[in-house]
Amino acid sequence: MTLAVLLSGQGGQHPGMFDLTAEWPAAAPVFAAAECVLGQDPRALVRIPGADLHGNRTGQILCCVAALAGWTLVQAAHPARTIVAGYSIGDLAAWGCAGRFDAETILRLAATRAEAMDAAAGDGASLAGIRGLPIAAIETLAAAQGCELAIRNASDSAVIGGPSPALEALCVEALAAGALRAVVLPVRTPSHTPLLREASQRFEAALAGLQPLRPPPGAPRLISGLDGAPVFDVRAGLSKLARQISHTIDWAACLDACREYGCDTVLELGPGHALATMARNAIPEARVHALDEFRSASGVTEWIGGR
User: Fold this and answer.
1) 280-303 pLDDT per residue, tens
2) Domain 125-184 class in CATH
């Protein structure tokens, strides 16, 4: 069995996002580290009525907590071969799952990344998801509204970044042109567009001061969330991790890498199931689930083991 672990981006945060890992003993250090960064236990935070789970800083930290806590379930299952790739903020979490940084470092970097993005973005810009049109057509419509291609999900699916009014107009035009779905997403930052060039520079400076850990024996193969290439040169990989903040992400290439690696099992860690849905389309022969689809921690480990 070869397992691909996909780490979610923002947008799917919800009150039950830690239901499977909240009491899982191996995940306790992750939650403790998160409390130091957030100032409160994330398991309690997500349950507070009206809590803002989609603020950029909080959202990015929560997504990394979900990924790292979920990763402890994967470790308990002892898969033979594993590849790990992350979507947007999930790309940072992947470095934690791959053993390159400890949990607290990943979570503090998530806070730094979000703060840099907020400082660069200002107000009034966001992201929109469009599915059901060729990428070239989506790009043409986006350019006409002064928007940018942020993420290439598939040949007919993309995320676009730009000013919120322009994205609203773009969604109307895309639906009129035959798109199956076109919605402004619940995020507040035009991630992966040139609007965040200064954030990339600031985050790269923060990464330059860190010395990654040597991955332990049996660590998963780490795939860059920017272009789907395996990370062999650590410094080059960290540079990509910073650049992806302001450059188009090719998530379709990441899914191609999973298929080429021979993955027959795919698990999405993090809130939501968007990556699992994309993986089912891109790797139809694989067993695919999102962590959110399970009812128990033991169910996850048994499924990974093929039981």
Assistant:
1) 999 999 999 999 999 999 999 999
2) alpha beta
